[in-house]
Amino acid sequence: MKTAFIFPGQGAQHVGMGKEIADAFAPAAEILEQANEILGFDLRRICFEGPAQQLDATTISQPAIFVTSAAILNLLRTDGAGDSLICDVTAGLSLGEYTALYAAGVIEFEQALLLVRKRGQAMQEAADEQAGAMVSIIGLDEEKANQLCAEAAQGELLKAVNFNCPGQIVISGTKTACRRAEQLAPKYEAIKALPLEVAGAFHTDMMAPAAACLERALADAAIRDPADIKVIANINAEYYKTADEIRQGLTKQLTCPILWQRCMEKLIADGVELFYEIGPSRVLTGLMKRINRKARVVNASSVDALNELLRS
What we know:
Shape: globular
Largest sheet: 5 strands, parallel
Distance between the termini: 16 Å
Strand content: 15-25%
Number of helices: 14
Helix content: 40-55%
Structural class: alpha/beta
Oligomer: single chain
Order of helices and strands: EHHHHHEHHEHEEHEHEHHEHEH
């Protein structure tokens, strides 16, 4: 039976994440301590205690989610949960792709964490230069979402950028265009239009300065060609073949749409039957229910869930 590890992206963070797991399992706590040493500040405390405003900042939330996911992964690999936790492929939603690459052995923990920190800083700086926003549109297909963007844009930047699951598409662009889209959404029979708490217009050309900054960092990063474990790319729902493809994919991520639904459909079509969501939330578990109800997803985000996995 083919198995996939999947990792959440920005938005999965919450105050207290990882605390119970770190308290209960030494291998998870070790990763959090290692991250503090690499970063030079107490990320562990921010994850455990907040405040939420600090944790939600792009510069903090991205390394926090990566480290929490890596801590859970380290626990599962160190304590061993049987052969069932040997994966054939990994995938991560946007930011989560860095955890997927780490899990596949393509990049080492410290290198991945430093890149994630650089990514968060670069995205925040780009957002500070140009005010942008994102809105989750519930209940529309891709065609109608694009029509909504075309009408609401009025010459400004606005595009569909996150194709998460059927009926959930995130649009991104200038703040005024996003506000118009919220107001026009009922016209297109959207169920809801929910503004997201993000710093800027992620996955659009407004992130071009961040992409250029990240491209330079990736050029110097130690990245290996994928080997035994495949990694699927957000930008095209195809498997990475080389380290250079990975560098290009991680750079394009910042200005291109994220095709999560297509990634999951590709894995299912290729025979993946069991998915483990490894990280601080149940976001991807929920999305999979909308993508394919028959797919089996095991969520590893709590002490109880981890204890059950470790006993299996």
